[in-house]
Amino acid sequence: MSNLEQDARELVSKMTIEEVAKQLKYDADAVERLGIPAYNWWNEALHGVARAGVATVFPQAIGLAAMFDDGMLHEIAKVIATEARAKYNEISDIGDRDIYKGLTMWSPNINIFRDARWGRGHETYGEDPYLTSRLGVAFIKGLQGDENYPECDTLKVAACAKHYAVHSGPEGERHHFNAKATAKDMEETYLPAFEAAVKEAKVESVMGAYNRTNDEPCCGSETLIKKNLREKWGFDGHFVSDCWAIRDFHENHKITNTPAESAAMALNAGCDLNCGNTYLCILGALKDGLITEDQMRTACVRLMKTRMKLGILPRSDKEAEDKTAVYDRISYLENDSPENNALSLEAARRSIVLLENNGVLPLNEDEINTIGVVGPTSNLRSVLEGNYFGTASEYVTNLEGIKRTTKCRVLCSDGAHLFKDAFSNLSKKDDRMAEAIAVTRNSDVVILCLGLDATIEGEEGDTGNMFASGDKVSLMLPDSQIRLANNVIKEAKARNRKVVVVLNAGSAIDLSFLKDDVDAIVDCWYSGGFGGIALAEMLFGKINPCGRLPITFYKDGQQPEFTDYSMKNRTYRYFKGDVLYPFGYGLSYTSFEYKLRADKTGYVPSDNDDYFKLQEDAVRLTVTVKNTGDRNGAHSILAFVDKEPSEKIRNGMMPKDISDAFDPDNQPIKSLCAFKHIYLKKGESVEIALPVSGYSLTTVLEDGRRIFIPGNYSFSVGEKTVEITL
Q1: Where are the domains of the chain?
Q2: What own/partner pairs with CB < 8 Å and gap ≥ 24 does 258-261 have?
Q3: Helix, strand or coil for residue 352?
Q4: Up-side HSE of residue 134: CA atoms within 13 Å toward CB?
Q5: Are strands 520-523 and 498-504 parallel, antiparallel or unpaired?
Q6: pLDDT digits (tens, 9 = 90+) for 484-497
Q7: Which of the listed CATH numbers 2.60.40.10, 3.40.50.300, 3.40.50.720, 3.30.420.10 matches domain 592-725?
Q8: From CA 396, how far away is CA 404, in angstroms rounded?
Q9: Which tens digits make up the pLDDT trace of 111-120?
């Protein structure tokens, strides 16, 4: 037994069972006689310390994913953890231990963005399980402080992988919905990021989802929590319910009859901490014999271990205490620092995705006198924030960024409300349309700013979009914006004006109605406190756009039924139709030329391997990249693998249990297997090694088994493809 385990057990042994019960709820009471202060476990850090006052506001998670740069994300997470510590140290010393002011961060969200209508999709790292795994691991390690004490049982802050599992809408049904997912889809798509969070990142906590998964409520699922998380993956941290999710057991899922039964079901499955109030009935469950005192104390021990790792509670390991004391000395002055804000700006730069460009960008100020900035997102702070956001000490909107950057005259108009027909109840429909047309008439170039914000797409209960509970009913922009776009484009065409569309949104938007009638389209996501500066720098060529889409942009109506959790015909790995913009797409102001080589390393997975641990180089890709354009620029290299079944599979020569479980029509078209962010000056070339793990070469059968199948493997980077036989 470790010193940490022993310390936690000893502390819990001194508690009465009533005191134990009060530690199993998110707003844990103080136990003054034991020196345990009150603590609120509910804290948020999705893209910066959230809901706790001033902090650096980074681009929303989906924008951070568009960087395709796990190293950069790791640095961002380190900053977020530093700011959380800086705020906690000072605020708790003043005596404020309220919600959102602690060190247990309920981030990241590593669900798969499987359906573009899901309102919370912008909290995730996109639609690909490999990308989500790599970014999730980088973020968790950065938060928890691996760069300082990777070998020690200490935490800078505690990360939380959520929402486990198979959660991705519909929001309006999440409290009673039963997500049915096949064994193949679970192993191949929905679980890999959580497995990586546990095995690689050693994430301290995992949060359960609201929904049921294959009939079991996620926060009371013995399959998910006991069998997968703790027994199969070796998870040693604490498990927390989503907020008031355990109440859903009896009120909505109808799995139990009483709050006490729900509390017992959750605790029996291994849910240690209740965000909500159902564990107020846990002593009743104990009295009724539904749970044991030992189970309650086991849960409490896990929670005390986390608090000890954070240095909130004392422990006998003085070396560990000395190391958490380093975090305790982080000054409040390290919050919202100029250096941290500069990192937010750099992230905003790298997240921008250029979707269309007929040569109008970058704008040449010597050829422009007047720029018109039109649209409801042009001067809107909320499109910088996304959801789960902090308060930036400075915001630079799209309009403000353009005005700061250019010497040209800038005209502006909202043109339309974000989603309403008019700004004033006394006005007629489209009450700002004429102003937008006037700006268009008098401008050489129009920057048409369209999109959404978290009042339209977001979490159920947090958005103003109550008719869809935060989800989108379609992939189209609100009608008010479509009318604005059509009128501005029509006026611009009549007067030979250039139109650049700037999109701020957290998801795929169907822009097919305008893409052929405008000169450029730029996707900025929810771009952080300094998003307007990054946009302006990109528009005027001060930086090279280098972001890539972490999601597929579909045309409206192409996706399967929202409640169908099968991956067939979903995401770039399985969608067989034509799309608006594919996963990984992104244009540049310069051009890059590739040479690609694939080499075997002599390592081939075997049937006896734990495939997850196969991070050895099973294949090594060597990519020579040359900047062949006339501009310096950053660039992300993406490598994909396409697995062709061997002759043994095609001819039925594999063992029957494998052949019967292999469906050739239900295999990924291709899968991301490596990526790397680089920067090249014009004319410069570099040779990059991209190791491909054995895990990326495995195939998941219909029964959920992950195996290696010998055969031909095609690797592609850009337009270059090489094939090897393994």
Answers
A1: 338-545, 592-725
A2: 259/284, 260/284, 260/285, 260/288, 260/290, 261/285, 261/290
A3: coil
A4: 24
A5: parallel
A6: 999 999 999 999 99
A7: 2.60.40.10
A8: 9
A9: 999 999 999 9
* DSSP letter (8 states) at residue 129: H
Q: What amino acid is encoded at 509 in this protein?
A: I
Residue 467 has pLDDT above 60, yes or no: no
Per-residue HEC secondary structure of 653-676 comes to: CCCHHHHCCCCCCCCCCCEEEEEE
Contact, 62 vs 507, CB < 8 A?
yes
Q: Which CATH class is domain 338-545?
A: alpha beta
* CB-based contacts of 671, cutoff 8 Å, min separation 6: 128, 130, 573, 640, 641, 642, 696
pLDDT of residue 643: 86
Alpha helices in 68-163 (DSSP H): 70-94, 129-144
Exposed e or buried b for every residue in 530-541, given b needs 16+ CB within 10 A? bbbbbbbbbbbe
Q: What CA–CA distance (Å, rounded) separates 111 from 114?
A: 9
**What's the rounded Cα separation, in Å, for the pair 223 and 298?**
19
pLDDT band at 614; cut points 50, 70, 90: low
Work out the percent of the chain whose per-residue pLDDT is above 70: 95
- Other beta carbons within 10 Å of 92: 18
| Tokens matching residue 551 | 């999601």
Measured in whole angstroms, the distance separating CA 208 from the mean position of its chain's CA atoms is 16
Going by C-beta distance under 8 Å and a sequence separation of 6 or more, which residues neighbour residue 525? 59, 60, 62, 63, 66, 122, 351, 386, 504, 505, 506
State the chain's mean pLDDT as an integer.
Answer: 95
The reply to whether the predicted model has a pTM over 0.85 is: yes
Q: How would you label 223-236 residue by residue, b for 16+ Cβ within 10 Å and e otherwise? A: bbbeebbbeebebe
Residue-wise DSSP of 534-583: HHHHHHTTSS------SS-BPPTT-S--TT----TT-HHHH--S--SB-T
338-545 and 592-725 share one fold: no
Residues recognised as catalytic = 242
Separation of alpha carbons 620 and 661, rounded Å = 29
Query: What is the DSSP code (8-state) at residue 310?
Result: T
User: CA 89 → CA 99, 332, 393, 581, 665, distances in Å?
Assistant: 15, 7, 20, 46, 56
